[in-house]
Design a protein that fits this description.
This protein is of the alpha+beta class and 66 residues long. The chain is built from 1 helix and 2 strands; from the N terminus they run αββ. It has a two-stranded antiparallel ribbon. Strand 1 and strand 2 form a beta hairpin.
Length: 66
């Protein structure tokens, strides 16, 4: 394995995940707040899956709006 290519590929993937996730979260939370479905904080979960590598990790957290 070429470590430089691997490292850059992981970074590129994580950048895409971060940008896309932030945009989707902001859109969904703003709409949910407007509809009264979300208060000052809501639970969030991300599932990272790489089936070929046998990886599945769940990351839990809280998103605060106030």
């Amino acid at each position: 394995m070429n470590e430089d290519i691997f490292n850059m590929s992981v970074r590129k993937f994580l950048k895409k995940v971060g940008v896309t996730s932030q945009r989707e979260i902001e859109t969904a939370i703003r709409k949910a707040v407007e509809e009264g479905k979300v208060g000052a904080a809501t639970e969030a979960k991300v599932v990272l899956s790489i089936p070929a590598a046998g990886l599945e990790v769940t990351i839990d957290g809280t998103i605060e709006t106030e």
